C-alpha cells in the first residue's frame, strides 16, 4: 500500500529536529558573550539538570543530528525485532516498519515530562463492556480492566537531560508539562500545596522558552494601579459568600432590536428594515485609517517539493468481454427454481456454530420450498385493516445475526419471489448502537414498515414494558415478523410466483456508511445482479457444485455476491464461517477448506494474517484442494479509468493516484431516494484534459483510490473514505495507522485498535489519532509511546497530528464485525463523550493557517482625525446626563454641603422617620434605624473615638462590620468626630488564612489609627487562628461598639472646605490590585444628588438593596443615599441568601418595592436556586409586578445572558421584561450610568467580535457570524459627561468608535490613596486632558473600553438619546498576536463547548493563553474537555490555547460583585495551589 502511495507522495524522510540553543537565545547579534551565553544557559537549566557536566555528549549542541535524506535507512536486525504475536497485521509491511524505526532512531531515546493528573483520574473505572455474540473483537473475559492506581510521577532528576525535550517543546511536536501528583480531596476543597516544585519549574522554563520564541512578543497593557504590587500575593478574595451555588450557563440573546424598546408595537420585520436603511452603507474613509478588521486566514501555499505527475494521460482500460453461455438462466430466481426442482438434495449452504461444528445444511430443495412459503405468507397472510400489508415493490428490512446465514438466505430469496425489495441491516443490540440512528434514517427514507427476523434473534432484542420490541433511536415504527417454519403458511395449489426475466427494476438495497457516518442505500437492479453473477462466474472460473468457504459478512459486499448470489447461480455449496468462530479460532477457515475439500475461499486480508499467527502448531492442514483464494478488498470491473478525486472527473496521468471509476452492467444503480448525490457517483462522465468525454456511457465512482500499472493491472492503494487532506496534501488514514502500529508493535496498543480520522478546525482538516491502550500500560509508557508516534508520523508523512488520545481497552464503539466504528468514534470525540485516559494536543505544529499577527499602524495625526470625523459625517463621541444646575427641585438637603449636616437636620425635622430596615435570613426585621436613632448612635460612636480612641480630626478609622445598621451608624460617627472612615469586609471565620491578610492590608495601606468593630470580630482579630495568618501584635487600637455609654457629643466636627476628604473607598480590582480612592465631601453630596434625581428618590419611597456595603455604588446606596434623600432602604445582606435564596425577591414583593438593586452574584443565585421554584413562590404570594427598575450594580460589561434569563424566569411572578437593567461605575467614579425610573429602555446592539479585536466597532445584524450582543449600561447620570478617547493618542474618537471611556463629573473621586504616596503615577487617571479638540476640560480615565452611539430614541428632555456601551476593562484585556482580546468573550465560547463546563477563566502567562475550566460532572470527562476547549478557541478566536487546566467547581475566585478574579487565579496556578484534576500543555 505504501509503495502505491509513493508514486504520488514520496517521503522525504527529512528529520525536523531543531536544537534548543538557536531558539533559547535567538541571534543576539553580539550583545552577549560566549561566556555570558554559557552562564545564562547553565543558570536556566541548573535546577533541572543537577549534574550538567554528566550530560550525554550526543545531545550537546556541538553534535547536531544530521538530516538524512533517505526515507528508509536500514536498521540492524536487533533494532527491528518484530514481536510477532502483536500487532494488527492488516497494516503490516516490513519496509514500512523499517522506515518508522529508522525515523525514530534519529530521535534519541528520552523521557518526556507528562501533564499533571490527579490520582482519581488515573484510576479509571472498570470498563464492563457487554460483548454480544458476533459483534466485538474483544474476548469475553476481558471485561474488567481496572487500571492500576499507580502514580508515575517523574522527577526531573531521573531524566538524563532536559534539553532534547526542550527542543521538542519548541518544535511543538509533543506536549510538555510536569508530573505533579496530587491527591483528590472530598468536598472539592483545594489540597494543601503538594510537593510539586518541579511542576512549576518545568512550566516556568517552558514559559520562558515560549516567550523567547514568540514572533510578536507584545508587552501586556500597562497596569492602571501599580502602587500596591508588593502586596498582591496576600490578597485573596472572599469567595465563601458568593460561591454557594454552581455557576455558568448560557442563554440566548436579548430580543431587544437595534435601538427598539422591548415594548415597541412596531412589527419587528419593519423595524429591521428601518434599522437596515438608517445604517450607513458606505465604509468610513480609507485615508484616515487602515481598514484592518478583515482577517484573512493564511492561504496554504502548495508544497514546492511535491512531485508533479509526469506520465501521459491514461486510457480507459477494458476488461475481457463476458463469454456467451448457452444455458445461462434469464434471471437469478429462474436459476433457483431450476436447482430447487431438479437438484433438491444438492447442498446449498452449511452453517457452523462457534465451536466449528456444522449446525445445519440447507439444500436447494429446502431453500426453494421455504422461500416460496415465505413469499406466499408475506403477500397473502399479513394484513392491516383488511388490506394486504405489503404489495410488490415495498421495501422490507432483513434483521439477521451473522451466525444465521440459513434464515437470511430464505428471507432474501423469499422477498425476491414476492417481488419485495429486501434491505439487509445489522441486528440492533441496544438503543444506542454505534450508527444505529443512521440505519433508522435509511429505513425511514425507504418506507420500511416490516422487519423479518428469527425467533432467537427477536427474543434477544431489547423490549419495552409492553413486551414489544422497543423503537430504536431514530427508527420508524416497525412490525417484527418471525420467519421460522411454524409461522409460515403453505401456498395454495393455484398460487405461483411470477419469475420474470432480469429487468432494470430494483432487486435489493445494500446499505453503505460514509466517512461522516451517514448511511445511504444503494439500489441494485435484477439485471445488475444477474450481470454481476455472470462476471464473477467468469472471472473466478466457478463451475457447478463447487464448494466455497466464506468468512465475509453474507449480508453485503463480496460476502453477499459470492456466498448468496453467484453461488446459487452455479449450484455451489457454501460453507459459511461465522465471525464469532474466527474470533475463537482464527485457523477455522483453513481447517474447513481442508475438511470440506473446498475449491475456493473468500476472505479478508485480516483473516489471512490472523491464521498466519496461529499457523505454527498446525502440521496436518492441507490446502491442496484450494484452486483460488479471493481476498475481497476490491471490485470486479469491466471498463476502468482513474480520475481526479476533486471536482470535474478529469482522467489522471499514468503515474498519478486518483479515484477508480468503472463502467459495467454489474454495478449498483443509485442511492435510494437521493437524486443529487446519485448523479455525482453513479453517473460520472470522465473527461480528457481538453474536456472531451471518454465515453458516451456513464461511469460509477468506486470510492477506491488507485492507479493503473503495467499489463492492465489495477492497483488499489486505499479508500476515499480514508483520505485526509491537510494543507493541500493528501494522506491515507490506513497509512497513518500503519505508522503508529510500527512504532511499538503491540507492546502498548490493545489488539492493534487504532482509529485515525480528521476533524475540521479553522478551515482545514486536522488529524486525530485514537488508540485503545492495554490495561497494564503505565502513564510513563503512554507518554513515551505518544511522543514516539508523533515523531514517526511527522517524519514519515511530514504531517502533524493535531490530537492523540488514548482510551481504556475495549471502549471504542465497534462496527458490526468487531472493527472500530470510525464515524461514531469521531462523533464521540466532537461531542466530548470519548472519555480518554490520556490526551496530547499539538496545535502549535499543525495549525499553520492562522491570520497574520496584526501590525500596529503608525499613528494618524490629530488634524486629519478631526477632519476625518467631520468628512465621514461622524460626530465626536461625547454624551452627558441632564444638567444638574437646570434641574429645579424643592430639595432641602441640597442646602447642606455635608452629609453629617443632613443627618442632623433630618433628626430635628423628622426624628421618627424610618431610614433603614435590616432583614435576616428568615425575612424578619433584624434591626431598624430612624433619623433620630441613627443620629444618637453616631454621636456615641464619635464620643468613643475621641475619648477612648484618643483620635484627632483627620485620623483614619477602619470599620470592620458585617452588613447592617452598625456599619452605617459608625460611618456617621466618624464624620461627626472629623475622622476619615474606611469600610472593610470582616474576615471569614472559616477562611481566615485567605481573608484576614486582606483586612490587614487595607488597615495598613489606609494608615488607619483605629479599628471599630463588634466584640465577636474583635476576638477573632486577636485569636490564635488569626496569629497564624497575620502579625496580630501590629493591629492599631481596636474598639468594640457593642456597649457604648449614652453620651452627647460636645460639638460635631465641621469641615473647613467641601473639598476635604470625607471617606476612603477601598476595593480589589478584577486584576487583583487593591486601590483606595479619595472621596471629598463635595463629591459625596453630588453623588447622592445625582442618584436621587435619576431614581426619583424622596422620603415616601422605599428601595430594596441586596448588595455588599463595602465599596463603590453598593456602599453609597447602603450608607449614604437614604440619609441624603430621606427614603427608606430595606437592607438584604447577600450572605443571607445562602440559607434562604428567595429572601430578596420575597422582600421586594412584601414591601411592594418599585426600585431595587442587586449584584450579578445575587441574580445568579436566584436564577439557579429558584429556577424550578417559581410556582411555589407564586403560591406563597410573591408578586414582582410592583418593580419598575431592578438594577444590577456592576463594574463590567452587562451580562446579557444572565439578565435575560432572570427576566424570563421571573416573568411568571409578574416581573416586567423592561424592569431589569444594569449600572456602570468604576474606581474613578462609582456611578457613571444608572437606568433610573424615566427615559427609554436600554438598547442592545450586535457588533462584530473580530473588529473589536482591532479596537474597531462594526455593527452587524443579530445572528450574523461572529456577532456579539452588547447592552447599554443604563442612562448617564445627571451632571456626568462622558467622552470616548483613543487609548494611546488621547484624542477624541468618533461615534461608534471603540476607545477608553473618560468621565467628567462633580462626583468623580479626587485621586488614589496609596501608602507610598504614588498618586503622581496615576495623576492622569483623575486629571487627564484630551490631546486635541476640547483640551480644557479635566477628565478622569475609567480604564474601561467602550463606545457611544446615538440612537433613534428620545430621552426625557426630548433630545436624541446617546447610549453608552461598556466592552470591558482595559487592564483585563489580553494582547495576543497583536490584537486585543476580552477574556469574557473567550470564556463564553469555552463554556458553550461542553455541557459539563460550569465556569471558565482565561489569562495569559508569558504569551501562552491559559484556560482554566471548572468541571461539573464526573472526572472521567475531564480529558474530553481538552480538545473541545482547544477547538472552540481556535475556531472562534483564532488563538492557540497553551495550557488547559481542569479544576473542581468553585476553584475560580469570585469577588463580592460576582466578578472573576483572574489574576488571583493566575497566582494560584503559578504557585500550584489549584489542585487541578488535569493540566494539559498544548505544545
Walk me through the structure.
- With 1483 residues, the protein is of the alpha/beta class.
- It is built from 42 helices and 54 strands.
- The strands form 14 sheets. The chain has an eight-stranded mixed β-sheet with strand order 29-28-37-36-38-39-40-41, with helices on both faces. Strands 3-2-13-12-14-15 form a six-stranded mixed β-sheet, sandwiched between helices.
- Helix 5 packs across helix 22.
- The protein is elongated.
- The N terminus is likely disordered.
List descriptors.
alpha/beta, 1483 residues, single chain, eight-stranded mixed beta sheet
Provide a concise account of the structure shown:
The protein has 1483 residues and is α/β, with parallel strands linked by helices. Helices cover 29% and strands 20% of the residues.
Provide the fold topology.
Elements: H1 2-6, H2 20-24, H3 34-45, H4 77-80, H5 94-106, H6 119-122, H7 163-171, H8 197-213, H9 268-278, E1 317-318, H10 332-342, E2 347-352, E3 358-363, H11 364-380, E4 383-384, E5 387-388, E6 395-399, H12 405-417, E7 421-425, H13 436-445, E8 450-453, H14 455-460, E9 479-482, E10 506-513, E11 519-525, H15 526-540, E12 547-550, H16 557-569, E13 573-576, H17 579-584, H18 588-595, E14 600-603, H19 605-614, E15 628-631, E16 639-643, E17 658-663, E18 670-671, H20 675-682, E19 700-708, E20 714-719, E21 723-726, E22 729-732, H21 733-743, E23 749-761, E24 764-773, H22 779-797, E25 801-808, H23 822-831, E26 838-841, H24 843-846, H25 862-871, E27 878-880, H26 899-909, E28 914-919, E29 925-930, H27 931-947, E30 956-960, H28 965-977, E31 980-984, H29 992-1005, E32 1008-1013, H30 1015-1021, H31 1024-1029, E33 1037-1040, E34 1061-1068, E35 1074-1080, H32 1081-1095, E36 1102-1106, H33 1112-1125, E37 1128-1131, H34 1143-1150, E38 1155-1158, H35 1160-1169, H36 1174-1179, E39 1189-1192, H37 1200-1209, E40 1220-1224, E41 1233-1234, E42 1244-1248, H38 1249-1253, ...
Parallel strand pairs: 2-13, 6-7, 6-8, 8-9, 12-13, 12-14, 14-15, 24-25, 28-37, 30-31, 30-32, 32-33, 36-37, 36-38, 38-39, 39-40, 52-53
Antiparallel strand pairs: 1-16, 2-3, 4-5, 10-11, 11-18, 16-17, 17-19, 19-20, 21-22, 23-24, 25-26, 27-44, 28-29, 34-35, 35-46, 40-41, 42-43, 44-45, 45-47, 47-48, 49-50, 51-52, 53-54
